[in-house]
Amino acid sequence: MSDFKNEHIKVLTNLYSGLYKHQPDEIVSLPKSGSSRQYFRLTGSNNSVIGAYNADVNENVAFFSLSRHFLSKGLNVPNLLSISENQQYYLISDLGDTTLYSSLSCHLANSEYNEKMMGYFKSSLSHLVRFQIDGADGLDFSKCYPKQIFDRRSVMWDFNYFKYSFLKPTGVIFDEEKLEDDFESFANYLLDDEMVYFHYRDFQSRNIMVKDNELFFIDYQGGRKGPCLYDVASFLYQAKASIPQSQKDLLFDFYLAELSSKKKVDVNLLKKRFPAFVLFRVIQTLGAYGYRGYFEGKAHFLQSIPPAIENIAQILKSDFSDLNINYLSGILHEVVEIYRLRFEQTELQEGLTIDITSFSLKNGYPTPNVEHGGGFIFDCRALQNPGRLAKYKELTGLDSPVAEYLKARPEVDIFMNNAYELIRNAVENYTQRGFKYISVGFGCTGGQHRSVYCANRLADMLKDFPKVNIRVSHRELNRK
Description:
Elements: H1 3-20, E1 26-29, E2 38-44, E3 47-53, H2 57-72, E4 80-83, E5 89-93, H3 100-104, E6 108-109, E7 112-113, H4 115-133, H5 152-170, H6 176-191, E8 197-199, E9 208-211, E10 214-217, E11 224-226, H7 229-236, H8 245-262, H9 267-295, H10 299-302, H11 305-315, H12 326-347, E12 352-360, E13 375-379, H13 400-407, H14 410-432, E14 437-444, H15 450-462, E15 468-474, H16 475-478
Parallel strand pairs: 12-14, 12-15, 13-14
Antiparallel strand pairs: 1-2, 2-3, 3-5, 4-5, 6-7, 8-11, 9-10
């Protein structure tokens, strides 16, 4: 056990002992989610609580302040039980392990959710309205972190998150100035809204706990003052929840009725503005999926990309003429086509598909397949570089003189045989287990000579495997 984990357990045990006057019988570390917070379950003598550690004190203070306020309003959030002096550790009530999201697959039939799940969805939206209106009433928004209000800076943060963590790794080529112009126009539209609600920020089924058939709500510490439509868009268009459009429409009408019962609103205006908030929310989540998936290597975030792309495809059918975002719309249509083409290509194949890519390490790693998120990456820079020789400089690994040059070098044979053995073992294992994809990347300095040759040579070495589909791409050559 690491020293850090030992320290966490020691502090949380002291908080528990101070609360219940006895030591916990068991402390279990809970799986991490998308945040850096660490959670533990402490149990003993019929008491079960959740212990948390978070080094970001400002975020913790926001959580404490919001929790106390929401509890005073009778909202279903965890009870705050104990807080350490340094405010990095705290205990909250144990709401169990069942989220609304974990319940979804049990109730989805014939592409529509059944009456029980629709009841949960409607209850969630009723609670959302209470958070947005009752939760905002008397709330000290100065305690919110990192922003007190949904403003231009927070909007642009999300747009840039999407641009740098999703668009660029995806390989979409765009004019940055034109894209920024559309982001500014989009931001103007979003900010021309009534900013009087509690903006939950991440209202979705993974953050709703189901305990004794009642719903409880977590992960609101990033909330702030803002619009109402973002949160309902977040809930109805959560990528992997896959609520059918007909039921999304019914639930949105239900939400508007609930909102109207507590506050005078222009329902027709909200309906008109809703698609823009849906588009913005899905763009924001794609940035998060890209960062968590491509940069942090978390495969389950990559698996959320395909349904999010389908949400983009559906919402792009709306009329966005008021937003003046023609360039951004074109980029999003291109993204939809890129991903749909990838999915169509993989769906047509039976057996194991091996994606082999050559690339320049200077330009980053290739995008992993969304289904499995990984594979092998080999660095070819230890091999002699034919690109340093004048006669090969303008050629590539596809040209015979370069291929013959590398084939004649013993160290290349050793390198390729070692790579082949690793991949062969994986291919045999994955084929037996029914896996669908494996990715292999060969990188070198420019992505033109060594990596290209190695990618092609591996494809040739694997060509006799049964029930295997081999696809080779040369990223840098395709960009020329």
